[in-house]
Task: structure prediction
Amino acid sequence: MTPQEYNKAVEEYSDRIYRFVLKSMGEEERSKDIVQDCYEKLWMNVGEIEFSKAKAWLFSTAHNAMIDIVRKEKRIITDDTPREDIYEQGYTDLNEILHKCLGNLSEAWRSVILLRDYEGYSYREIGEITGQSEAQVKINIYRARMAMRKMIGKIEIVV
Result:
C-alpha cells in the first residue's frame, strides 16, 4: 500500500470504523482511541497490506481491540440469555429501544448485528472481520435478532 492509498483508507473508512466502535463500546473517547490505534497499526504494516484488503483489515483490528478491552475489564457477559420484555409498557421511541437492546446483547452478538444491519456487510465479510465461519455469523445474527425481539416484547406495546 502506498502512502496515498493509506490516506485514501483514512478518508474512506475512518468514520465507518468509528461508528462501529462507538455503537459497540458506547464511549466516544475510547472509540476514537481504538480507531487511532487501528490506523497506527495499519501504518506500521503499510508495506504488507494491500489497499483492497485494508477495509476488512481495519474492521478486524477494531473488532479485536474491542474484544481485548472487554476482556481486560472483565465485562464479558457470560449468560447469553438477555432479559425478557424490557419494555412492558407503551413506548414510542423505537430508536432508543433498539439501542438499549443492542447494549444488552453480548459483545459477539452486538458486533455481528452492527456489522450486518448498520454497516451493511455481507455474511462472508463479517466472517472475515470477526474470524467466524459464515454459518456461525448467520447463527449469531439470528440469535441476536431473536434476543432483541424477546427484549422488546410485543410490537403493539412499542407502537
